[in-house]
Amino acid sequence: MYKVLLVDDEYMITEGLKILIPFENWKMEVVATANDAETALKYIKTNPVDLVITDVNMPGMNGLDMIAQMKSSLPNVAFIILSGYQEFEYVKTALNLQVADYLVKPVNKLELAAILEKLSKNFEQSSYHQMAAIFQDDTTEEEIVHLLKEIGPIYLGASTKAQGIFSIPYHSSGQSIYLFLSHQKEESIYEVEFSAPYKEQIQHFKLNLEKTIFYGTISLKVQNPLFSYYEPMYRVIIQGNIHQILEELDLLKEIILKNTPKVSITKQLMIQFIMDVYHLFEHLKSDDITSIIKEIEGMHSFDELLSYIKLQLQDLFAQYRMNENVASVLEVIGRDYQKDLSLKDISKELYINPVYLGQLIKRETDSTFAELLNKQRIKAAQQLLLSTNDSIEDVCYAVGYSNVGYFYKVFRKLCGKSPKAYRRQSNNKR
After folding, report:
1. The domain 2-129 belongs to what CATH superfamily?
2. What is the CB neighbour count within 10 angstroms for residue 119?
3. How many CA atoms lie within 13 A of 106 on its CB side?
4. Of 372, 369, 377, whose CA–CA distance to 352 is shortest?
């Protein structure tokens, strides 16, 4: 409700206005009356109001001087003057003070009602824009504090409907919802007590809201990075065992729900996962994986995403089974990439000609043995760079390279940047 202060030295005027004018029709409430300017000024020092309806001629300070003082401390307050005089100087001064209107007594109820209707709409528009500014990126912490200082304890929440003292439309994870502020707890998707630092809390709130919508009801505490579990999954992928991959996906679901990473990170992981599977199938065209990636990026829930991934995997493995010898090579690479591997040594183990094996690998994966080994080593290096504080040299040796310079060269070729730049950029995104 918008707060109204009535100021008039005639008791019957203030009481008559309270009785005769249905202020509640315009979401207004008379919160106080005063019979002189000094009393009114004292009241607003501790009780801000939205509208002051005042007489001009009163004992002591007149209404125009009172308005001038009030505007210095409450610049957004609206004023309506009710006066028994229509002298030019009074009207001129009132206009200079930018009062909402100047009415001559006796007041016409319909005329006053029209003014209150207009002011109510102005209040709503002004209040909406002021409160909406709280959620704008360019609003400073100090400005938010100022906007909230008169509201008191408040909750920040998200809901499927507009509610509370203020609501604003918001879009998250494919859902059109409302962000709201309320003096009390409301039925909501997600809700917290709103407290300083406000800008930081708003960012955390939006992130956790997205997680809540995407993952469901979960723990929202910050967890460790999730890269450490991907390498075992990659080893399963290259073996081509669809049933084991699906079992790993169930485990992956538990790990992700426990850690609740950013939605974008989860989607990136799933895209990387499906792309690794995709590279095992030479018959697939680029359009096939492009459409899958677009679908993943557009997913609105984690369950929806997992179901889609499972269906795609089942479809892929139903269409094609990798050559057993190539699958064996990929298994060795995934398991022993840290070792000094060679196609010649592996071909001896498989009792197959190394040249022919190399041809099979190229046909099935569209990559050479050396390229596959480098891809696996660099993938492992990326995980170590993100999940540990090991030096670049230690990472180089840990993934199977003996020459740091060569490691830098291969890493830059496959990742488009140096290992140091990759680690720095990835850390900045967290």
Report:
1. Response regulator (3.40.50.2300)
2. 20
3. 4
4. 369
Residues 6+ apart with CB under 8 A from 419: 381, 385, 392, 395, 407, 408, 411
Given a cut of 80, is residue 126 above it in pLDDT? no
Q: In whole angstroms, what separates CA 304 from the centre of its chain? A: 20
Q: How high is the pLDDT of residue 86? A: 66
Contact (CB, 8 A) for 245 and 280: no
The answer to whether the beta carbons of residues 234 and 335 sit under 8 Å apart is: no
HSE of 47, CA atoms in CB hemisphere, 13 A: 15
Measure the CA–CA gap between 395 and 383, rounded to whole angstroms: 10
Mean confidence (pLDDT) of the chain: 84
Dihedral sign (CA 383, 225, 289, 234): positive
What is this structure's pTM?
A: 0.52
Of 89, 69, 88, the residue nearest 77 (C-alpha): 69
| Torsion sign (Cα): 423, 425, 428, 430 | negative
8 A C-beta contact, residue 249 and residue 270: no
Q: Residues 252, 233: contact at Cβ < 8 Å?
A: yes
Q: Extract the tokens encoding 278.
A: 């995709």
Evaluate whether 2-129 and 324-430 have a shared fold.
no
Rounded Cα distance, 191 and 159, in Å: 9
Question: Domain segments of the chain: what residues?
Answer: 2-129, 136-214, 221-321, 324-430
- Beta-bridged to residue 81, according to DSSP, are 54, 102
8 A C-beta contact, residue 60 and residue 155:
no
The CATH class, in words, for 324-430 is mainly alpha
Of the pLDDT bands very low, low, confident and very high (cuts 50, 70, 90), residue 262 is confident
DSSP label of 134: G
User: pLDDT for 84-120, tens place per residue?
Assistant: 766 656 677 767 777 878 888 888 888 899 999 988 8
What SS3 class is residue 156? strand
Smallest CA-to-CA distance from 105 within 73, 134, 80 is with 80
Residue type at position 128: Y
